[in-house]
Amino acid sequence: MVERVGIVVKLGQDSVAPHLLEVAAWLESRGVEPVFEVDAARWLPQRPARRTAARDDLPYMVDLLLVLGGDGTLLAVADRVSLAGLDLPILGVNFGHLGFLAELNYPELYPLLESAIAGSATVERRLIMRAHVRRAGQRIAEHMALNDVVITRGALSRIIELSVTVGGEFVARFNADGLIVASPTGSTAYNLSAGGPILHPGVDALILTPIAPHTLSNRPVVIPASAPVLVAPTARDPDQEVILTLDGQVCLTLAPGDTVEVARHDTPVRLVKSPTHSYFDVLRRKLKWAER
């Protein structure tokens, strides 16, 4: 049973503000305590008894996370939950542009929230990736990515070479603008724009998609999620930038000799799903898939 619900909103999303008090009152009428992320709480009247928390701390304090925003907000929350090692369900309500992950519209919220609080909602487990950056043999950074891990050249750089191994087996040296390592969830994001395939979220696999490869024979490849991916980028000159981006939320500049290891995280992300929206229905509605 859910006793506390954490509420996160998209930064700067003023259209969410009128709904916060309504959500809080609805939860409190059912004996459930709302815990507001600090950016959400600033839209509410001050009340000493109201509990708030920073976004990084909120997952430790609640039994369910309610995200009122877009896909980017949900990605940021999912990455934090996984980095904390928590098995916490997330319910996303779309106040953004696409709403592919946060697929629910606000009028649909309360019936699904009711079942989530009662523990009877459908919860879908999504593969999430863990990325490590190593420098001189030492791990210097660790991040989670529900959608994709992307290694690209800098804005003014030439193509880069990326040496890739999967499960310890050498795959190829890609000469390209970059490389996308995408999960099934992220297959409909940057991977799709770069010509990669769509994977159903139930498929236990990752996708390697070169970005603008310098040869016609380089094509995306689907690999087992159980096999760690190691990427060693090489710039063509010492001043060339190589950038690592995770879910479009975190951006790091890699130094010469750095390597990036991507592997499936042990604990999947749990998304509360509407029983009336199938995956293929979302593909058709949001991406106009299979429509002429």
Task: Briefly characterize the structure.
It is built from six helices and 19 strands.
Keywords:
single chain, 292 residues, alpha+beta, Rossmann fold, Tumour Suppressor Smad4, 2 domains, seven-stranded mixed beta sheet, six-stranded antiparallel beta sheet, 19 strands
What is the secondary structure topology, with strand pairs?
Layout lengths: L3 E6 L7 H12 L4 E5 H4 L9 E3 L10 E6 L1 H13 L5 E6 L14 H10 L3 E5 L2 E7 L2 E8 L2 E6 L6 E7 L2 E8 L1 E5 L7 H4 L11 E7 L9 E4 L4 E6 L7 E5 L3 E5 L4 E6 L4 E5 L5 H9 L5
Parallel strand pairs: 1-2, 1-4, 2-3, 4-5, 5-19
Antiparallel strand pairs: 6-19, 7-8, 7-18, 9-12, 9-16, 10-11, 10-15, 12-13, 13-14, 15-18, 16-17
Description of the molecule:
- The protein is α+β, with helices and mostly antiparallel strands.
- The protein has 2 domains: 4-127 and 268-287, Probable inorganic polyphosphate/atp-NAD kinase, domain 1 (Rossmann fold, 3-Layer(aba) Sandwich); 129-264, Sandwich (Tumour Suppressor Smad4), CATH 2.60.200.30.
- It has 6 helices and 19 strands.
- A 7-stranded mixed beta sheet has the order 3-2-1-4-5-19-6, with helices on both faces. Strands 8-7-18-15-10-11 form a 6-stranded antiparallel beta sheet. Strands 14-13-12-9-16-17 form a 6-stranded antiparallel beta sheet, with no helix packed on it.
- Strand 16 and strand 17 form a beta hairpin.
- The protein is globular.
CATH superfamily of the largest domain: Probable inorganic polyphosphate/atp-NAD kinase, domain 1
CATH fold category name of the largest domain: Rossmann fold
Strand order, largest beta sheet: 3-2-1-4-5-19-6
- Poorly predicted regions: none
CATH architecture descriptor name of the largest domain? 3-Layer(aba) Sandwich
Regarding quaternary structure, how should these chains be classified? single chain
Instruction: Please tell me the total number of domains.
Output: 2
Distance between the termini: 45 Å
Our Rg estimate from Cα atoms comes to: 20 Å
Strand content: 35-45%
Proportion in helices: 10-25%
Output the helix-strand order. Answer: EHEHEEHEHEEEEEEEHEEEEEEEH
Number of strands: 19
What class do helices, strands and sheet pairing give?
alpha+beta
The level 1 CATH classification of the largest domain is Alpha Beta
Tally of helical segments: 6
In one word, what is the shape? globular
